[in-house]
Design brief:
By secondary structure, the chain is mainly beta. It has a single domain, classed as Rieske Iron-sulfur Protein, CATH 2.102.10. It has one helix at 25-31, and strands at 20-24, 33-38, 41-48, 51-56, 70-72, 75-77, 84-86, 102-108, 111-115. The model is unreliable at 1-16 (pLDDT under 50).
Length: 116
Amino acid sequence: MSGRPVSPNGAAAAGTQSLQRVGSLAALRSSGAFTATVAGRSVAVFAVGEAVVATQGRCPHAKGPIHQGEVIGDTLTCPWHGYSFSLRTGACEDDPDLILERFFERMAGDDILVSL
């Protein structure tokens, strides 16, 4: 564990990085997922039930466009090779050595804010 505070969703809480607006909840609800750039890194944002989850923007297996994957419940399946990840924990169901990095997110009205 990094020693940083943890949000209720399990992602590390914002440390020295500031929160950056990545999009709106309305846009996320209509699309189901989107990507944004935060501090030069690609971030994928997903709607999981009523929750918002922010992850790395590329699959840790082969760098596929993870935001284009299928989400069923809280499981995300990469569109390239079918690797499945828990959006709650980042764990890969197919390879325990792969972890989908998750980022701290916070809502401010309709704005989705993310910190790496």
